[in-house]
Amino acid sequence: MKLLTRIALLSCLIFSVYACNDQRKAKNYNEKTQVDDQALPFLQKGIQSGNAEVKLSELALKNSQNVEIKQFAQMMINDHTQNGKELTDLASKRKVNIPDGIDTEHNRILTSLTTKTGADFDKEYMQVMVHDHEKAIGLFETVTDNTDKKINDLADKTLPKLREHLKEANAICAKLK
Asked: I need a labelling partner for 116 at 20 to 30 A (CA). Which of 10, 36, 62, 83 fits?
């Protein structure tokens, strides 16, 4: 009898731990997200990467002496703040758990950039911008045919800006070499 009780308790514990790892949970535990498995990571990663672009660009405004990089950084702050609001509003309406702050990878990058100055800072910041925009374009392209029209429309609206950001970041990087 004790063995059956222990097995039952262990089973409950395992299922409880597994249930806690559900990525599709909504803010309110009684609600389920209203997006598919394609749109969920798009919204969550889109918000986090946008937050990271803003944080990194705020640092660039303070640390860079290059006027072109400062202008680029200000454009990043403006565009990604606006896009972040749109993504957050959409995620909220779809009951998606909205991530706070930036992800671990971007925290590491931010820490690394805070130790750089001058040309070293400028090169690393711009390389990160190129890399992040390549990833963002790929992320946004995954939902251009999503069944949720609002998600699809937001991706279609944002992609040209992301491509322009990438083009400008590549041009600035080429000048820094």
From this structure: 83
Give dist(CA 40, CA 68) in Å, integer: 35
- Mind listing the pLDDT tens digit for each residue in 46-58? 999 999 999 999 9
Phi/psi at 80 (5° precision): -75, -25
pLDDT tens sequence across 137-168: 999 999 988 888 999 999 999 999 999 999 99
Between CA 140 and CA 87 the distance in angstroms is 11
CB of 145 closer than 8 Å to CB of 152: yes
Q: Which CATH superfamily is domain 33-176 in?
A: Ferritin, core subunit, four-helix bundle (1.20.1260.10)
Rounded Cα–Cα distance for residues 21 and 40 (Å): 15
Count the Cβ atoms, other than its own, within 10 Å of residue 36: 15
Sequence ranges of the domains in the chain: 33-176
How many CB atoms neighbour CB 56 within 10 A?
Answer: 23
Query: Can you give the pLDDT at residue 34?
Result: 73
